[in-house]
Amino acid sequence: MHIRTLGLLFGALATGLTAQAQKSIYHKGWTDFNKNGRRDVFEDVAQPLEKRLDDLIGQMTLAEKSCQLATLYGYGRVLKDEMPTPGWKNEIWKDGIANIDEELNSLRETPKALTKYSYPFSRHAAAINTIQHWFVEETRLGIPVDFTNEGIHGLCHDRATPLPAPIGTGSTWNRALVRQAGETVGREAKALGYTNVYVPILDPARDPRWGRVVECYGEDPFLIAELGKQMVLGVQSQGVASTLKHYAVYSVPKGGRDGNARTDPHVAPRELHDIFLYPFRRVIQEAHPLGVMSSYNDWDGLPISGSHYFLTELLRQQYGFDGYVVSDSRAVEFLHEKHRVATDFQDGTRQAMEAGLNVWTNFYSPAEYITNVRTLVNSGRLSTATLDQRVREVLSVKFRLGLFDQPYVADPQRADKIVHTPADDAFALQLNRESLVLLKNDKGLLPLRKSQLKNILVTGPLAAEASHAISRYGPSNNPVTTVLQGLQAAAGPGLTVQYEQGCVALSPGWPDTELVPTPLTAAEQVGIAQAVAKARDADVIVAVLGETDKAVGESLSRTSLELPGRQQQLLEALHATGKPVVLVLINGQPLTINWADRNVPAILEAWFPGPSGGRAVAEALFGDYNPGGKLPITFPKSTGQIEFNFPFKPGSQAGQPSAGDPNGGGRTSANGPLYPFGFGLSYTTFAYSNLQVSPRQAAPQALIEVAVDVANTGPVAGDEVVQLYLRDVLSSVVTYDSQLRGFERVALKPGEKKTVRFTLRPDDLALLDRSMNRVVEPGRFEVLIGSSSTDIRAKESFEIMVK
């Protein structure tokens, strides 16, 4: 059925509109949104953006303006109707709405939101058109809706292309893949009718206890900025807005606590700018996202969503952001309820709008917030100028998205052809492959050689688990290949793959059992004994351990980073059989697996992979794929070391000599990381040579060119992530010991050599001086090239000169 016919059919069924009534506002090349029978300036695509905005805002009433400042959550959350009804004429959105979030997307975890309109994909596109028709045709000015959705694991929609968790994506260190991920999310969003995707998360994961580490690209601001930039460019290349999360200083609440805490980050001013704001500044300046989500925490007593400094001075005036700011859910309410800087919700509304917030969001009707805005303006407590500016910023995005030129999905049927294609599955598999990090491989246990094996035992609570592959913030209802299924499919004839769970991921009484250990129950002893019995008959054991989505994620911070439940006891019992053990980790944050590191010969980090993760793991274990990912986050040895991360100030993470140093001696702590930032092994080896830095003397605004040769000196093809770190030898303020300032993932065949090139820009050399001005100071800089932050293979220097 043609788009126009299908759209009219849905519209007629839902609202009783006649075809003639619809046709009357649609003309060749323009739409009569305000239904006045003439082509207004705002309806004319040939007019400059500012004139179109002036014209439209000049026609709007307070009721209509206020409605452009709130989110309406979609069906099953706030909306009770799948399609428009006559009753919508009595709702607050009768005068329009800024955006509708997650409309008709059918999430696994929200049964009340299941809908027949989510799939086939063309049905969703047509349904979105029907809803858009209602807002265009049934509101006075016909202002189109911005349809928003989440997208950090792939587009958050029924059966869209599923991607691994962002912490896995960060482990790829592959800009091209992240750009393609953004293009995939943007293409699918556009085809399905979404116009704005909440992606990427740019929060540096500096405290591994924090539950949302799994949703971050890592701990280092440069890595996050580089990957986040590519995600934004990819999404917006498809004509869809990208909205950054969560601005700002969101990811280090006091003690790493999530849930009802998520506040009071202990962050110094320079750390604020150099670590937590750095990714936002760079991505905004270099990729120009159309959206930013403001967070609900404070910094130094300033609630972010009520802070003019954060939302206007930094974001718009310094960084040049020109899109609209949407609040995280309940951020405005928290100004009163949690932060206690507002007398009530209405006062919080005023503070947020004056600070620079554009659109309020929460999981209930927007009526109260919109009423707050109207009351504030009518009473004079909120100026019309502020109101108009906030509305202008929202409408500017809608104009730039083309919603006033073509508010509908042009060809709904096309969605069935371009959303979640076989090519998308192949891409998602490659992303899962490249996210794998080999942490240990003593005596070349991996890859497993099928011809030398007859019986493999796959065990552990994550072996047959699938929940980690389906995120609240990603696609639902896709089939998942577990690690067990992946190994069974890849084993081939003559190789038996047995399975025994051994234990559950989270034992009864957990996490209290991490505070006061309890004896194993009879059932737990039996479970481990059954796994051990099968292990004795196996040639090799693959233990799949870690965390489920019930242990890590939003609101799920941890106080320990040990393997949860009885998994450590299972691992020790398996090791005691004397059979070789391969540990596969499925987890969302670094784990303090010290015993495993000392006793288990091979460890593969898989993070929370997507649905094809089981196949990717099997390929890596059997040698069909050579893992080449690198850690985007430090693994501490103990939670007692936290904070322990990269980059760090000189000496701040140094060890303690046992004697001989009157200022630093004393063996009282565990020193050093378990696995450092940037670490990852391979089934092959790489050699570095011929590091060149040019020029060796340069002016502060010069570009510094760096080149190094990297060769595969081993027996198999593999990927190496070449990492460039920069050290400021002498500076006016204390800077980081070294900082990541370049990386490149390079695929090399055995014996192959490639030259990897980097360009250092002035911004890469800059620091915040004693007056908090960002400057490039004269002096010597060291270029450190290596395979991780601690495995430096080559070093050279250059000098910045002043005239």
TrEMBL record:
- Residue span(s) of domain Fibronectin type III-like: 720-789
Q: Which Gene Ontology MF annotations are present?
A: alpha-L-arabinofuranosidase activity; beta-glucosidase activity; xylan 1,4-beta-xylosidase activity
Q: Which Pfam families match?
A: Fn3-like, Glyco_hydro_3, Glyco_hydro_3_C
Gene Ontology biological process terms in this record: arabinan catabolic process; xylan catabolic process
Keywords of this entry:
Hydrolase, Signal
Which InterPro entries would you find in this protein's record?
BXL, Fn3-like, GH, Glyco_hydro_3_C, Glyco_hydro_3_C_sf, Glyco_hydro_3_N, Glyco_hydro_3_N_sf, Ig-like_fold
Q: What are the start and end residues of every segment in region (Disordered)?
A: 647-669
Taxonomic superkingdom: Bacteria
Annotated signal peptide = none
Keyword Signal among record annotations: yes
Sequence similarity: Belongs to the glycosyl hydrolase 3 family.
Q: What is this protein called?
A: Glycosyl hydrolase
The organism's taxonomy opens as: Bacteria, Pseudomonadati, Bacteroidota, Cytophagia, Cytophagales
